[in-house]
């Protein structure tokens, strides 16, 4: 499949339109490699196509009534099997529960908060009906609080285990004080139908890493929105790892509270036969002199294995000095698997350091295989080495030895389940 990216000259800067094939459809492939690049690679202004609407114009609200139940043809839902999410769209439902096992380092607290207190802390509102339902139907919002200037030497571990039963609606608020340093790990296991909103607020000068591992059984359904408001001169990293679950849809969003913020968003997913693993990211560059980097990598194997990645970056007119890049890579291991990859880049000012995007989906790199096999490594093991190296780049971003080891073992189990 041949692809190209287009730009629009707005008179004040460049707008880079999402990667599209020659018929104007979003990139979708089951093995043919493609590559797309952003503003750095196509700044000649010859494109004339404009997007239907800015990503920044989509509705956000805590009121679930502001979001109709999607039919599946809407732009933000057209890749998602919405019929499997029906119970999670409910406007007035009694929530089931997940078993919680929390390990909180000294000084870190957790407590339930009222709706009014939650609104004082959280400024980023739900961006779709699932996230709005998570708040509306949750018994309460749970606040995990890291005090200012704390430098945690151990991670905050939040283990959430499902045992079936009624659909679960959950809202978690993570607040990290000024100049604090923290690693927060969310681990999801068992089986459940869950929709959750995770709201992260990072203080000025803080260093925060949030890792969400979806290690569900294959019967689980998990929809989530993870929002982060990144403080002035703060560093924020978000790592999403999806290996389990029959259906996972995770939206990770970033906005900045002041200049100097630096946000990185990483993702790893490995889909087996029948799994649907969908990840979406949105970086809203709303203030000047901030940076962002997005990298999601996935592998697919088996009949009807499906992955989706949609990456949005919006650089607003006020966001001069922005430096941003996003990239998605997919490795298709067997026939019958499908990856959809859609990078989107909107730029409203030309006064930036740089912005770009890339997407590739394909089979093994023959050169890598030849290099390994020429050194006496059998082809089967060589293929597995390539996959391990491909995914390990994301695992290394986690920063916790025990979880990294578990995930490497889980990837090994995935590879053992197929003949590649």
UniProtKB/TrEMBL annotation:
Residues annotated as domain SUF system FeS cluster assembly SufBD core: 165-390
Chain intervals with Basic and acidic residues compositional bias: 1-12, 37-60
One of the GO biological process terms: iron-sulfur cluster assembly
Designated name of the protein: Fe-S cluster assembly protein SufD
Assigned protein family: Belongs to the iron-sulfur cluster assembly SufBD family.
PANTHER family attached to this UniProt entry: PROTEIN ABCI7, CHLOROPLASTIC
Species the sequence originates in: Falsarthrobacter nasiphocae
Chain spans, region Disordered: 1-67
Pfam families: SUFBD_core
């Amino acid at each position: 499949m041949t692809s190209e990216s287009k730009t629009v000259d707005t008179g004040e800067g460049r707008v880079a339109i999402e990667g599209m094939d020659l018929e104007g459809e979003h990139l979708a492939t089951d093995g043919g490699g493609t590559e797309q690049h952003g503003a750095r690679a196509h700044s000649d202004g010859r494109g004339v196509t404009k997007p239907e609407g800015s990503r920044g114009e989509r509705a956000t609200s805590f009121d679930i009534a502001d979001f109709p139940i999607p039919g599946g043809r809407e732009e933000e839902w057209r890749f998602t099997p919405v019929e499997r999410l029906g119970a999670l769209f409910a406007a007035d439902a009694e929530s089931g529960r997940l078993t919680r096992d929390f390990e909180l380092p000294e000084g870190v607290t957790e407590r339930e908060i009222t709706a009014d207190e939650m609104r004082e802390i959280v400024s980023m509102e739900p961006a779709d009906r699932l996230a709005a339902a998570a708040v509306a139907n949750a018994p309460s919002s749970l606040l995990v609080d890291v005090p200012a200037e704390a430098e945690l030497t151990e991670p905050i571990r939040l283990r959430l285990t499902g045992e079936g039963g009624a659909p679960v609606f959950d809202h978690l608020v993570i607040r990290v004080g000024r100049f604090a340093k923290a690693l927060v790990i969310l681990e999801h296991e068992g089986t459940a139908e869950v929709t959750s909103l995770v709201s992260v607020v990072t203080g000025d000068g803080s260093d925060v890493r949030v890792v969400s591992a979806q290690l569900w059984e294959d019967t689980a359904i998990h929809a989530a929105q993870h929002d982060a408001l990144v403080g002035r001169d703060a560093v924020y990293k978000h790592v999403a790892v999806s290996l389990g679950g029959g259906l996972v849809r995770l939206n990770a969003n970033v906005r900045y509270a002041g200049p100097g913020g630096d946000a990185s968003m990483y993702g790893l997913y490995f889909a087996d036969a029948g799994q649907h693993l969908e990840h979406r990211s949105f970086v809203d560059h709303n203030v000047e002199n901030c940076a962002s980097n997005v990298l999601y990598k996935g592998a697919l194997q088996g009949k009807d294995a499906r992955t989706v990645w949609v990456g949005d970056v919006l650089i607003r007119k006020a966001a001069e000095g922005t430096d941003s890049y996003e990239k998605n890579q997919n490795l298709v291991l067997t026939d019958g698997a499908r990856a959809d990859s859609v990078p989107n880049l909107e730029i409203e000012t030309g006064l930036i350091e740089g912005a770009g995007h890339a997407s590739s989906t394909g089979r093994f790199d023959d050169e890598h295989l030849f290099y390994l096999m020429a050194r006496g490594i059998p082809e089967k093991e060589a293929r597995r080495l390539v996959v391990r190296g491909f995914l390990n780049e994301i695992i290394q971003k986690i920063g916790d030895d025990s979880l990294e080891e578990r995930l490497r073992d889980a990837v090994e189990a995935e590879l053992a389940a197929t003949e590649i």
